[in-house]
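Ticket closed. Logging final result for Ciliogenesis-associated TTC17-interacting protein.
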Amino acid sequence: MMEAPLEEERPTGASVGIEGADHGQELKVSEEAVSFMSSIEPEELQRCVFADSLVTVSEGGRDLGKFSVTVEFAHRGQQPCMLLHAQSQGTIDDNPCGTTVTAYLSTELEVLEEEYHEFVKLEGKSLDKRCHMVQRDSHMVIDKVTTVGEEVTKESVSYPMSVLRGLVTEGSNLLLMRLIALRKKVPENMNFMSLDQGLHIINTTFSELGLKQLDVGGETVEVFGLERTVHSVEDSPTTWQSYFLGDGHLASRVQVGSPVTMRLLQLPSQLQRGFEKIPLVWEEDMQMCSKFLDRKEELKANHTSYLRQHPEIRALISDFLQFLLLRKPDDVVQFAREYFLPFASSHSPEASLKPLSL
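Final structure:
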């Protein structure tokens, strides 16, 4: 599954700050990290526009689920940006679980808006976490809702954008690693900031694991390794190791100490039947859901306006239904035809037999 850095909860309305993150810890965002983000070229982003699809397996090789990432160019309002959508679905001890991330990112990987959803369905009690962050009035506004069984906890926090220089989130992290892998080199001192499950600002670092040989689909290939470490304000750091093909495709991913591994089953060049179709869950896709709701409201307003301009429609339909229920004919279609035929401006026996054109 996609990582959840920590399982720490934060009281609603807790104070925030770049130094301390509520615990007095000094945060160190390196100039090398910030420079890397600002040095990203459009050609590099173009090479990142593709889909990854991996399987999640246990230590014994049991299939536990799937993990997918897609990156594409998009617009948020009038602003060109990158749209990243990642989704993992699987089981934990045979309990369904999943994580979905949808992020709109600037060309320098600055988060414009991001939606994170995580769930675990347990017998008798389920866990559901939703976190939404969006830039608004020079601030990053973050709202989090955690549901455990019937208990709902809501948290909100706002950080000035001036203190979030070098922020890496669950969404931007996935695109950042693709870019690093394509360059095949991790600059020294790659220290960014991130947010833990309690919405505290913490440090996250990237380091190079070098090259190694990996079997993918029965073929031995060279892959480039990256290690991401998420530091904690209270607990031990959590580390993930990812290996990438030369073209930036993710080949394997594992949390250090976990028996679960995500791995690529076939090289992109081996796929004979095209890309695997990823199940569409439009309700969890922020862009598609927004378009659906906008279109729904647009149609509703249009229909309401038309009915308001033609009040005779309601009277006509009401009269027809009343007459229909009084007569209760066996052939409703024939009854409707005979009822509405006199309303036609002009008709002939031949014209009445012609089907309506769409």
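The two ends are 48 Å apart (CA to CA). No further action required.
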